[in-house]
Amino acid sequence: MTPGASIVVEWTGTALPGTSGIGTVGGIADPATAVACLPVGADDAHTINLTVPEGLYDSLHVAADFEIAWEGGELDPSGTFTDPDLVLAVYRDTVTQLGYSDGGTPSESVGLQDPASGSYSAVVCPFFATQPTAYRGKLTLTVLEPAACITAGSSKALAHSTVGSSTGGLKAPEAPGLLNFDVYRNETAAVAVPVPDFAGRHQRVLFDRSMGQPTFLWARTDAPVAAVGALTERELLIERARAHLRSESRALRLTPAMINEAAVFNAQFNGSGPGIVRFRQRFDGREVHHRSLNVLLDRSYRPVAVSGYFATDYNPTEVAARSFVRAPAQAIADAWISLGGVLDAAALTLTETRDEWQLYSKPALTGSHEFERAPRVKAVYYPRAGTLEPAYFVELFANAKANRQLIAYAFVVSAVDGRILHRNNLKADAAYSYRVFADADAINTPFDSPLGNGYTPFPGPDPKQTLPRVGGPTKLVTLEHAGIVTGDPWLKDGATETAGNNVDACLDAVDAPSVGLSIRAINTCDPELGDMRPAPTGANAFDYPIDPDENPANPNAQAAAIVNLFYTINWLHDWWYNHGFDEASGNAQMSNYGRGGKEGDPIMAQGQDASGRNNANMATPSDGSSPTMQQYLFDGPVNGEVRTTAPIDSGPLKFAAAAFGPDSYELTAPIVLADDDMGDSPTDGCGAAAPDPGLPVPPPRPPA
Fold first, then answer.
1. pLDDT score recorded for residue 327
2. Residue 310 CB-half CA count within 13 A
3. Would the pLDDT of 434 be above 50?
4. What integer is the mean pLDDT of 332-353?
5. Is this model's pTM higher than 0.70 or not?
6. Residue 274 pLDDT exceeds 80
7. Which strand (E) or helix (H) includes residue 399?
8. Fewest CB within a 10 Å sphere: which of 114, 465, 599, 605?
9. Residue 279 CA to chain centroid, in angstroms?
10. What does the DSSP assignment read for 507-533?
11. Nearest to residue 16, comparing CAs of 145, 128, 107?
């Protein structure tokens, strides 16, 4: 119990021949599901009974390092790994796996922090070995000072001596409200696994301990270009990317089936830059939710790196036997109910099938919201600790009846018991917005703001300094597109509205029930209700001159705002398209021109949206359903003052502007008590003011 003191235990053993590696379910070594590194005989496992003095960890720490070493071997015929290549796994009480190491060198180590009392087993098995392999084992226990930071040190791995439950339950009850959450993350957050040794690569690997997966794996510096047949450029990219995944299958824990079943959703060279091939994981013909791998290759098709990860910790036979017990309509109802709504699955009718998506009718809802668009759902597999669970991916868009506020959520709902496994708010609020004027450069880049680019970064010496407002110049730009490599036009010749293939931009001025109309909850522009898209000012022209400080309620300013909104989004669409965000990558277009991806989903851009103020938001579903952008009006600088003149002059007083009433006025009058003696609040000032007993009764005011 002296800081710095160590206890060393050594032993020898023999690993059995074979090809196995390590495999457990949820950190539990269950003989029915685990595939390797379980105690088999006396030669391949060593057990140590550890007793920790009571109260030791109140004042000190202990680092426990398990190590094995053996004589190095030769590369196997494929050149992928050595023969022999061993794996070290550490268990407590022969059941709970605490960590493992399989770095591919003739030594492995697993580190534990503050191990509890119990029986510990160091188990050695072959990742690949054609003969029995003798090894040397050692456990080093080191007492550390209280403030010492326990790290892996010379070890290849660091694991905690306590692991999470494998029951699949959340660590704690779900937080109230509409927060994003993911059951998988909760299941794996407390499980730490060692980092294998990834030597001989371009840069250091990024490794997620909670998942036990590399998330950015640089290729080996000597990685070869795979030999494939005569193929097109895209086919070459795909085949060489798959070949690279096969060569990294051990590090990424991929089986041949995982690689072969993976679906390609994008494969291309980025201009004169590198190539990228994007894979989505699939099992039994269905998508595995949020599991993808991206392979980066240089211009000579040599692999550079792999990012992302697949679900790998499952038994394919067991997963294939699992059934989709609940129906898709039930999943929609379960998702809506989880938001606090009421919905009977029997009220949903399947109306359309688009690829893997099923679209259902919009039923009449009781309560505070109505569906803004048809609910849609598709069958997926959801990764769990040790398995894949049959589930449904659901997207719901709805509006509040009271104020037309949009809500948009994506869910993964268990097809086994209806449990919500994943929820993600698709609507992301922004803290700022801008109307764009075009720069004078050759590509007509949008300005940072209507005041131009000179205010970003702030040019003054003091951030509190008030700078004069100088509007940026407008520019009449004539173009079909913003240099997109495909040449796709924004509008068809002769178009009469700002509604094109990429964007439908409108002014959504009527989005709240305050207009006194009984209108359905929609979040698209309806000209019959006063919403509008600007009309052409001439042949194939939308020319609305605008001053940055013009009253945004003026019809000219409204039209100019929508033209600039339409221009900015289209410009950004073309810019990002040229950098790889194309149809197959999931961009937003009405027509995808046969280039892959899901179509029918242009951005619905709503300017001066009446459902909010001083903000903006964007609801972004997955490919095949339109994103919705809502741009609100901002309260500009208030020019004016309020002051009392009697019995003393108060000087200018601060005040805030209201979102209603006249925006230009001058008024001098006696102050009276805001008491109208009516309505829900007698002091809200919405009725005729009661006479102040200390003042003469003023004459009645004409109607506003």
1. 95
2. 31
3. no
4. 91
5. no
6. yes
7. strand 387-400
8. 465
9. 17
10. E----SGGGS-------S--GGGT-B-
11. 128
Q: Are 64 and 153 in contact (CB under 8 A)?
A: no
pLDDT in tens, 635-677: 777 778 888 888 888 888 877 776 666 777 888 888 877 777 7
What CA–CA distance (Å, rounded) separates 9 from 356? 58
Q: How far is CA 479 from CA 542, 544, 561, 654, in A?
A: 12, 16, 19, 47
Which span out of 114-123, 170-179, 447-456, 670-679 was modeled with the highest average pLDDT? Answer: 114-123
Q: Which of the two residues, 189 and 299, has the higher pLDDT score?
A: 299
Q: 605 with 629: CB under 8 angstroms? A: yes
> Exposure of 309 by Cβ count < 10 A (0-12 exposed, 13-18 middle, 19+ buried)?
buried
What mean pLDDT comes out for the span 187-195?
A: 67
For residue 569, which amino acid is it? I
pLDDT at 526 over 50: yes
Beta strands in 31-176 (DSSP E): 45-50, 61-69, 74-75, 82-83, 85-92, 96-101, 107-113, 118-128, 133-144, 159-160
Which residues face 126 on adjacent strands?
A: 86
**Whole-Å CA distances, 529 to 114, 371, 385, 519:** 68, 19, 51, 9
- Backbone region of residue 557 per phi and psi (left: phi > 0; alpha: psi in -120 to 50; beta: other values): alpha
Q: Which position has the token pair 């390092």?
A: 65
The predicted model gives 259-271 an average pLDDT of 91
Alpha helices (H) along 483-623: 555-577
Whether the per-residue pLDDT at 360 is higher than 70: the answer is: yes
With helix as H, strand as E and coil as C, how does 334-345 read? HHHHHCCCCCCH
Predicted confidence (pLDDT) at residue 6 exceeds the cutoff of 70: yes
Report the relative pairing of strands 357-360 and 45-50 from DSSP bridges: unpaired
Q: Which two tokens stand for residue 177?
A: 């409200």
**Tokens 């894949």 found at:** 388
| Token pair belonging to 681 | 């609040």
Token couple for 210: 């909670």
Is residue 321 within 8 A of residue 405, CB to CB? The reply is: no
Per-residue b or e along 631-670, where b marks 16 or more CB atoms closer than 10 Å to that residue's CB: bbbeeeeeeeeeeeeeeeeeeeeeeeeeeeeeeeeeeeee
Q: How far apart are CA 178 and CA 531, in angstroms?
A: 31
Beta strands in 103-219 (DSSP E): 107-113, 118-128, 133-144, 159-160, 181-182, 206-208, 213-218
Instruction: Check whether 153 has a pLDDT greater than 80.
Output: no
Look at 182 and 154; give whichever has higher pLDDT: 182
Specify the higher pLDDT residue, 111 or 77.
111
Q: How far apart are the first and last CA of the chain?
A: 85
